[in-house]
């Protein structure tokens, strides 16, 4: 039944089965090419997604500090008000005082960053309810400093010449932060000798809001002269994303070359097949088989090589990347992103296309050769 409905497919299958070793070697080229495209494509995408997830929290912070050209060491109320206007509805604004100092505890002493803010929860809470939103007395210490000096809530520390009771330990920082809370002490602003604000930190709602806030601050404060320095890592994240896109393109180009080589292999195999079956094709043409049927049969043979090789290569490549993710620190969820399904599907389709193109000329040459010439050999 299938022979009558799909004669070209049936004939192509029989022809390939008669030359199994040659067909297998031709399909192996497609397997290797598709395997390379899938593994390099999936690994590149997974690395990009994992890196953006790791650094994503960094892109929502904007830090405003006095510009070096202004000759100032602190921001005034006008600067803080301008930052609040730029960040209105886009994030939380936290004025921050900072300095350095020696901290002594029961376990020794260490040099630490000293921060002063009334709202430590916004900057250092990290989703933990252990950090208060209002800070009016006592000291909060970073987790690293607490371990070094053997501190815990209720301990007493000496910052320069002043003693404070530890009211909490900040949670460890996850990822990268422009601040240094792990080795810091957070005090109420009233404990600082000066009322000047060293910097204003904006915790934006999203990286897009951070870009808008940074631009708004520059427009409001730096339009006439360079009053403030605006530090936002969203541009760094954009550069990192561009780098990974270039890396993915480079890797896929290398893998694509192997697929093109596989296409040349199929081209060679089909040429040899047509040369060996020249007499057979001549007989078929002499008994009335139309040249389009001959062309269709040979193209189906090339397509079958691409389908089998592409499917095997796509499955092997996907399985290899999953195994790599389970055996390394590459997150498995980054590999299983829904968008990654297009990588093996695209590689499979490309492999079939390369096989089809590779068999096109030999099939055309065989179908259009006059039967008399073919029978002469």
From TrEMBL:
GO terms for molecular function: transmembrane transporter activity. Residues 24-218 form the MacB-like periplasmic core domain. The chain crosses the membrane at residues 21-43, 250-274, 295-321, 341-361. One of its GO terms (cellular component) is plasma membrane. Its main location: membrane. InterPro entries: ABC3_permease_C, MacB_PCD, Macrolide_Exporter_MacB. It comes from the Archaea. It is found in: Cell membrane. The keyword Cytoplasm does not apply. It is a multi-pass membrane protein. Residues 253-371 form the ABC3 transporter permease C-terminal domain. Keywords: Cell membrane, Membrane, Transmembrane, Transmembrane helix. Belongs to the ABC-4 integral membrane protein family. This is ABC transporter permease. It comes from Haloarcula salinisoli.
């Amino acid at each position: 039944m299938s022979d009558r409905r799909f004669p070209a497919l049936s004939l192509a299958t029989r022809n390939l089965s008669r030359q199994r070793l040659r067909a297998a070697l031709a399909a192996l080229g497609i397997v290797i090419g598709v395997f390379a495209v899938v593994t390099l494509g999936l690994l590149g995408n997974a690395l990009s997604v994992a890196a953006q997830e790791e650094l994503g929290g960094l892109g929502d912070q904007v830090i405003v500090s006095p510009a070096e050209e202004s000759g100032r060491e602190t921001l005034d109320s006008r600067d803080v008000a301008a930052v609040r206007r730029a960040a209105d509805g886009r994030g939380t604004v936290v004025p921050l005082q900072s300095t350095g100092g020696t901290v002594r505890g029961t376990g020794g002493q260490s040099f630490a960053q000293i921060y002063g803010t009334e709202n430590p929860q916004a900057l250092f809470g990290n989703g933990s309810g252990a950090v208060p939103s209002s800070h009016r007395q006592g000291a909060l210490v970073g987790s690293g400093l607490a371990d070094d000096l053997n501190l815990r809530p209720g301990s007493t520390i000496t910052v320069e010449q002043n003693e404070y009771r530890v009211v909490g330990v900040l949670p460890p920082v996850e990822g990268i932060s422009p601040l240094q809370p792990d080795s810091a002490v957070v005090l109420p602003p009233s404990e600082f000798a000066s009322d000047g604000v060293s910097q204003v930190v904006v915790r934006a709602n999203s990286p897009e809001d951070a870009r808008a806030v940074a631009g708004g601050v520059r427009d409001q404060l730096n339009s006439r002269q360079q009053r403030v320095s605006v530090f936002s890592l969203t541009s760094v994240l954009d550069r990192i994303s561009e780098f990974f896109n270039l890396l993915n393109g480079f890797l896929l180009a290398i893998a694509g070359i192997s697929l093109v080589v596989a296409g040349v292999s199929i081209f060679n195999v089909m040429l040899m097949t047509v040369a060996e079956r020249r007499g057979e094709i001549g007989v078929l043409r002499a008994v009335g088989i139309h040249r389009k049927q001959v062309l269709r049969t040979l193209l189906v043979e090339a397509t079958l090589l691409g389908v089998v090789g592409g499917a095997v290569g796509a499955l092997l490549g996907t399985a290899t990347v999953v195994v790599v993710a389970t055996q390394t620190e590459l997150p498995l969820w980054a590999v299983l992103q829904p968008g990654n399904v297009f990588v093996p599907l695209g590689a499979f389709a490309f492999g079939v296309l390369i096989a089809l193109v590779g068999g096109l000329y030999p099939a055309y040459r065989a179908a259009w050769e006059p039967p008399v010439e073919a029978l002469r050999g």
